[in-house]
Amino acid sequence: MHKVLVYSFxxxxxxxxxxxxxxxxxxxxxxxxxxxxxxxxxxxxxLGTLAAMGPRWxxxxxxxxxAAYIFSRxxxxxxxxxxxxxxxxxxxxxxxxxxxxxxxxxxxxxxxREARRIADGGFSMILLNVWRGGFRHTMELARLTKQxxxxxxYATGQRVDWAREHVLDLYPQVDGLILGLGYDSIRRLAxxxxxxxxxxxxxxxxxxxxTDSLAPEDVTRIPEPCYDTAVYHGLDGLxxxxxxxxxxxxxxxxxxxxxxPANYGRHVIRKAVTRVVDEIERHMSAGIRHFxxxxxxPPPQALTELxxxxxxxxxxxxxxxxxxxxxxxxxxxxxxxxLKSANFMSLFFGIETLDDDGLKRACKGITYDQIRKxxxxxxxxGLFVIGSVIYPMPGETASSRxxxxxxxxxxxxxxxxVLIQPAGVYPASPWGKNPExxxxxxxxDYIKRxxxxxxxxxVPMQFWPAFPFSYDLMDKPAGEVRFExxxxxxxxxxxxxxxxxxxxxxxxxxxxxxGMIGKDPFELTDALKRILVTRDYAALSAMLRLAQNTTAVAxxxxxxxxxxxxxxxxxxxxxxxx
Length: 578
Fold this sequence. Notes:
This protein is of the alpha/beta class. Helices cover 44% and strands 12% of the residues. It is built from 22 helices and 15 strands. It has helices spanning 23-34, 47-52, 57-75, 82-119, 135-148, 158-163, 165-170, 183-190, 260-264, 273-285, 302-312, 328-331, 336-341, 356-361, 368-380, 398-411, 430-433, 446-451, 483-500, 508-517, 521-533, 537-561, and strands at 3-8, 38-43, 125-129, 152-156, 176-178, 201-202, 232-233, 241-244, 290-293, 321-326, 344-352, 384-390, 417-421, 440-442, 469-471. It has a 7-stranded mixed beta sheet with strand order 6-5-4-3-1-2-7, with helices on both faces. A 6-stranded parallel beta sheet has the order 8-9-10-11-12-13, with helices on both faces. 50% of the residues are buried.
């Protein structure tokens, strides 16, 4: 019988979302197990593993005091003076540099030990989930493991979505890539089929041109994700927040910045809503109360149907809390009041820009009037409304900036949070495939640096490395635009939005975690920036204990409500921390 390892190492914790159970890992494990193979998940995103590799205490102490001042200014939406940048910013950067060197050394040692553990585990196949921070270390793990044992290694996940065949070009230790969800191909690999015959497996001999040219992924027949602690190691170090999917993650749109259609296709296949809520109920019987709908493009009316089923089963009276992504084009006719009745707390809308020409350049397919009406409807229903904005975008001008700010001001009564990110250029996106068309210049080392670029969603951009690309900005051609120009525009725009317009930058999942631990979500968001930058793992551990205690109390109560489901105490997972 084949024995498969599903593995994930996220590297540095630069976002709270690193610390949630990974639905993709759990789903892969369920598919492999249903195929008759043995499977284990080693999720090294757990706080215990990552904290054990943290920097020495004295560097954290050095960072604590300057960070306290700088992040208090950021929390108050006030600029940091030039003097404060010298007295606090410079010492903080020096401390962070020392931390990074220590952590890098710890990671290298951990990866060497981990490769030996994997080689001794008797696995015939390894599926690597490659995502933001840990990609480089995961590739080193694959190289070392190959030296110790002849084993097939496949990569899947976010970095594969972004870079596709370039991963194979740069890393010979990887035998192939799982494109999109690829669950049927994973099942076939688990039973020993030839990867060259599988449609969603890319190898050096074949790379499918685009996933949307393939038959859509049928998610109606796959087993429920596996969170069995005998299989999923690391759950005890993660926040009890579960992601749930409604579909095969396909998207019928083609936004210029997005890689999703190229990887997941355009033909949407929905799961039956009763099946989705059955899965939610099973988690609730174990004390879980907080859920995030993982689909970035929920099918039209899918959220409404989910809410209706939740209310029909009375789950809103048992403490369920949910958040979801939503699109203005496909979800503007949802019954927002029903969502609120079902205890949906928040909806996250991708706005990207409010400039008319910018919306067209981004191929969003929506208008400002549609955005305004949708946000108003969600806000009037009592939902916490989050809008994401890409700024600056390629081709941004003073006029487009002013128009977006003006309209954000008009929408501020409907927006509880505005999340701002500068434009990222990924090889599998239309921007990455046709950069000249969009005023984008890719640096000579774009692929090599871009594959491993550490996106840090919650960490201030001033702590990011330079981009391996540039783009037309404020009437300057891309070739003349430096990273500092993009950073300057981003920071100026962010101060205007979060200062003058008095909007927050709370993430939807931070809203859920704040509810778990009884903390104000705005205060939690500000605290997390300092905690993550200074690697204050003690503070994160305290939050985790609070969240887990809340779940334990809910589990005891759930035994009365869900007694017919046969819920049992979860056993402790294997401790493989170094």
